[in-house]
Amino acid sequence: MTYRLSRPLQRALLILSVVLSLTWAYQHFGGLGLAAALGALVMFALVYLTRFMKVMQRAAQRPVGHVDSAVMLHAKLSKGMPLLRVISMTGALGQACTEAGAEPELFRWADESLSSVDCEFVGGRLNNWTLRRPDAEVSDADQ
């Protein structure tokens, strides 16, 4: 069983750890320690920003709402995934099914066989997803 902390608690712990690390660096190494700790924090922020920009650049090269295989996407999804990770997996932005700013947010990714995955995001995290497949036409030869 995995346990996830709530978003407000995660943010509070992040802020607390940053403040404590800056305080520790200043107390033990003075101004140079504080500068080094700030430099490390800026580096981590730039790494995250670079990753975000790479994902968005790749997604801009593909049609909105397109995925190579909806079935494979459905198999790889797990509850609590951030939207950025889902966009990274699909390589494309999802087709918005709700208005901007609405909670929950609904996005759809479809493949060429018209199978699609509808994803519901609450607070930027995957909450629920559904695989939809086109109805198989039954011909007289199949019966």
Short description:
By secondary structure, the chain is an alpha+beta fold. 48% of the residues lie in helices and 16% in strands.
For the residues shown, what is the average pLDDT? 89
The count of strands amounts to: 4
Helix content: 40-55%
Unreliable stretches, pLDDT < 50, 5 or more residues? 137-143
Total individual domains: 2
Task: Report the CATH architecture of the largest domain.
Answer: 2-Layer Sandwich
Q: In terms of structural class, how would the helical and strand content be classed?
A: alpha+beta
Number of helical segments with 4 or more residues: 3
Major sheet: size, sense and barrel closure?
4 strands, antiparallel
β-strand percent reads 15-25%
Inertia-based shape = elongated
Order of helices and strands: HHHEEEE
Give, in spatial order, the strands making up the sheet with the most strands: 1-2-3-4
> What's the end-to-end separation, in Å?
46 Å
**For the CA atoms, what is the radius of gyration?**
21 Å
| Fold-level CATH name of the largest domain | Beta-lactamase Inhibitory Protein, Chain:B, domain 1
Description:
With about 140 residues, the protein is of the alpha+beta class. The protein has 2 domains: about 1-60; about 60-130, Beta-lactamase Inhibitory Protein, Chain:B, domain 1 (2-Layer Sandwich), CATH 3.30.1450.10. It is built from 3 helices and 4 strands. The chain has helices at about 5-60, 70-75, 85-90, and strands at about 95, 105-110, 115-120, 125-130. The longest helix has about 55 residues, at about 5-60. It is elongated and about 70 Å long. Mean pLDDT is about 90; it is low at about 135-143.
